[in-house]
Amino acid sequence: MRNVEIKAKIADLDRICQIAEKLSGGQATIIKQEDNFYKVNEGRLKMRFYGDSSATLVRYSRDDQKGPKFSDYDLLHFSVAESQKAKLLDDMLKKSVGLRGKVAKTRRLYMLGQTRIHVDTVTDLGDFMELEVVLQPEQTVAEGEQIARLLQVKLEVKDEDLIDCAYMDMLEEKQ
């Protein structure tokens, strides 16, 4: 799977939520997430636990750069009924490769066509906006970047507010 992402620090949570709601034509889906990041040699690997006890193992690779960035990723979903398997895998990964750290957040998810608009409140970091343009097989990265940039403008996100790294990186820098 492939996408193009833009991430930015936001100063006015209410304003960006109003714009995202108007653009998407609906209210946000509120999702509680806790991500356990593991120590890996390439890319990133995390187990994402949701408020309902379901989970997703996420492997992704993405360059750290401001503005639109290409990401390729793989997902392994665990339903609520499989939550014990997710916890066991999480424990196994912690024991074998080590825990890099944890990121806890409340995500407001808005859908706009092929784009996920995330408005995140991250514990110990603050408020952020993230766009994920999920690329169709026939779409180029340049097309995804164009969609992301257009939405960035519509959401009134300035280039100087863009960030180039993951929340995990920001938490590590803060320590």
Please characterize this protein's 3D structure.
The protein is α+β, with helices and mostly antiparallel strands and 175 residues long. It has a single domain (2-174), classed as Beta Barrel (Hypothetical Protein Pfu-838710-001). It is 27% helix and 42% strand. The chain is built from 4 helices and 8 strands; from the N terminus they run βαββββαβββαα. The chain has an 8-stranded antiparallel barrel, surrounded by 4 helices. The longest helix has 14 residues, at 83-96. The protein is globular and about 45 Å long. The relative contact order is 0.26. The mean pLDDT is 94.
Describe what is shown at a glance.
This protein is α+β, with helices and mostly antiparallel strands and 175 residues long. Helix content is 27%, strand content 42%. Strand 3 and strand 4 form a beta hairpin.
Overall outline: globular
Helix/strand order:
EHEEEEHEEEHH
Roughly what percent helix? Answer: 25-40%
How many domains in all?
1
Strand content: 35-45%
User: In terms of structural class, how would the helical and strand content be classed?
Assistant: alpha+beta
Low-confidence stretches: none
Q: What's the number of extended β-strand segments?
A: 8
Span between termini: 33 Å
Q: What's the CATH topology label?
A: Hypothetical Protein Pfu-838710-001
List keywords for this structure.
single chain; 175 residues; alpha+beta; Hypothetical Protein Pfu-838710-001; eight-stranded antiparallel beta barrel; 4 helices; globular
Strand-helix topology:
Blueprint: E1 2-9, H1 13-24, E2 29-38, E3 44-50, E4 55-62, E5 69-78, H2 83-96, E6 99-112, E7 115-122, E8 126-134, H3 141-154, H4 167-174
Antiparallel strand pairs: 1-5, 1-8, 2-3, 2-6, 3-4, 4-5, 6-7, 7-8
